[in-house]
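Practice problem 4.
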């Protein structure tokens, strides 16, 4: 029994190693049979450890994200926080752009079609937030940047680096992205974030937020002024429609036919 368990563990490791290299080269499009061939096992062995190819793909992505998280945690107390932060971002992009599977996963995650693991994503976000906060405290990164901004820029930069032509310089777009985060006097002021309140709709008159009513009919206007404005517009529209009908009325009434003269026989 002990040897069987050891064989099972060994096969699982072989499958994961083969899957990492296969997904890195071809992404999620790689057939499961190709992964089994690389691992030197049958397809049935793969299914005994992973319910589907998607489950195997998820496991490889989680391993890579955890590696990024562990690296960020190791750098949390490093000297020169600004330089460390920018080197870390460049390394994440450089390593990710070579991994077709990870690129597919990140793109699908941004579109809501893939979620590696809520806990894994949370850990990565928190570790990245620590590096960002230390770089901001050191004066190397602008204060109005949030971790959500950095994550969005990472995804965008990764996508652009992937789509560079043969003449593109590797890392050039990443360097431009990093420069956009650096602190300085002459930087573009970011628009303020609009806090979205739950259960809000748009005012039918001005488009502003309208909190939904807890009871009764849902509100359509943000206040009395917009409600009165909408009422006046409806009244004016009805009046204009009525005047048009009055003007067109003579044309709608058919002319009386000529009277028939009665003649005596």
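Answer key:
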């Amino acid at each position: 029994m002990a040897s069987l368990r050891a064989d099972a563990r060994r096969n699982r490791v072989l499958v994961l190693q083969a899957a990492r290299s296969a997904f890195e080269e071809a992404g999620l499009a790689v057939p499961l049979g190709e992964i089994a061939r690389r691992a030197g096992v049958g397809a049935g062995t793969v299914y005994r450890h992973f319910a589907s190819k998607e489950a195997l793909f998820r496991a490889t992505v989680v391993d890579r994200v955890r590696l990024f998280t562990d690296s960020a945690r190791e750098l949390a107390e490093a000297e020169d926080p600004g330089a460390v932060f920018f080197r870390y971002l460049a390394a994440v992009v450089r390593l990710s752009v070579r991994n077709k599977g990870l690129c597919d996963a990140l793109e699908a995650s941004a579109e809501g079609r893939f979620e590696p693991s809520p806990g894994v994503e949370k850990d990565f976000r928190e570790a990245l937030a620590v590096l960002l906060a230390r770089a901001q405290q050191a004066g190397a990164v602008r204060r109005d940047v949030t971790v959500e901004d950095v994550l969005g820029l990472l995804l965008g930069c990764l996508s652009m680096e992937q789509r560079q032509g043969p003449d593109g310089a590797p890392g050039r777009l990443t360097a431009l992205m990093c420069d956009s985060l650096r602190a300085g006097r002459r930087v573009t002021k970011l628009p303020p974030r609009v806090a979205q309140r739950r259960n809000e709709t748009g005012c039918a008159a001005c488009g502003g937020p309208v909190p939904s009513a807890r009871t009764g009919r849902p509100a359509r206007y943000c206040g009395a002024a917009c409600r009165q404005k909408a009422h006046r517009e409806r009244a004016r529209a009805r009046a204009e429609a009525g005047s048009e009908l009055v003007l067109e009325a003579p044309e709608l009434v058919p002319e009386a036919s000529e009277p028939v003269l009665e003649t005596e026989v």
